[in-house]
Amino acid sequence: MKHIPIFFFFSLNLLLSQSELEKANKAYASRSSGSIKNKAVSSQINLAIKYYTQSISKKRSLEASIGILKSYYFSGKYVLNGIDKKKDTFNRAVKLGEKFILEYPDSPEIRYWYLVSLGSWAEVYGVIAAARSGFADIMKEHSEKIIELDYKYKDGGGYFMLGVVHLRAPYIPFFLSWPDKIKAEKLLESATMTGKNTLPQKFNYAKALYKNNQKIKALELLDGIVKSIPTGEDKVEEWDQIIEAKEYIKTIKE
Predict the structure, then answer these.
(1) Residue 60 contacts by C-beta under 8 Å, 6 or more apart in sequence?
(2) Closest listed residue to residue 236, CA positions, set 200, 202, 205
(3) HEC per residue, 123-190
(4) Which long-range contacts (CB under 8 A, 24 or more apart) does 45-54 make?
(5) What is the mean pLDDT of the chain?
(6) Structure pTM?
């Protein structure tokens, strides 16, 4: 026993003294550890989900509620394989998001991460299921609320979400008549001018430019994205945008 280094006991005591929320935040910040481009390993994000869940079960807090939504999204998007596992995870995240919005109606963070999961839910369930659920109108409503509550949150996240739904939602006379590609371009441009100008913002702004017949400007933006070098805890998400941008360039150059 006397040969065991004293720092071992210090480290053990420190770990035991950490709250579930602190351990969850630490695991989430390490979610990209061991990743290969846009494919993450499960260890750290599973720990984050475990500890956020434990934290919520003991004492519900806004921080833990945001954390579990972010973690389910990351797991479903970048870790899990198989459509059924993805559906289960995004279903869980969407239901939690709906519940949390009622508990924290003035939180732009909750609404934003709810929409992120809802968008991924729509991707795995398909266009028909999304249309039946009123997906586009829900996205529009909560995006506008995010802008109202805090337009700076997540580097203009409300502008970004609203721009994306205008860009992707089909115009359907008498049923879905508000989607507008010009508005999409303006909203996505606003997002790129608010905060850090992230790769997802650049990529979707480039797509809006292309759809509005500005191919040269779009390709310039896309070229910048594919030359990016992902670093830090967001590198999995950034790699995903780089890979998508490369594929999109192929389609518009054909």
Answers:
(1) 103
(2) 200
(3) HHHCHHHHHHCCHHHHHHHHHHHHHHHHCCHHHHHHHHHHHHHHHHCCCECCCECCCCHHHHHHHHHH
(4) 45/71, 45/74, 45/75, 45/79, 46/75, 47/23, 48/24, 49/75, 50/24, 51/20, 51/21, 51/23, 51/24, 51/27, 52/20, 52/21, 52/24, 52/28, 54/20, 54/24
(5) 92
(6) 0.90
| pLDDT value of residue 199 | 97
What are the structure tokens assigned to 183, written together?
């508005």
Tally of CA atoms within 13 A in the half-sphere of 149 that contains its CB: 19
**What does DSSP assign to residue 39?**
B
Separation of alpha carbons 193 and 189, rounded Å? 6
User: Tens digits of per-residue pLDDT, 130-143?
Assistant: 777 889 999 999 99
| Residues whose CB is less than 8 angstroms from the CB of residue 162 and which lie 6 or more positions away in sequence, other chains included | 139, 140, 143, 144, 147, 187
| Residue ranges for the chain with pLDDT beneath 70 | 1-17, 254
Other CB atoms within a 10 A radius of the CB of residue 132 amount to: 9
Angle, vertex CA 204, rays to CA 126 and CA 142, nearest 5: 65
Question: 62-74 and 20-29 helices cross at what angle (nearest 10)?
Answer: 40
User: CB–CB of 195/153 below 8 Å?
Assistant: no
3-state DSSP call for residue 28? Answer: helix
Vertex 231, ends 79 and 204: CA angle to 5°? 70
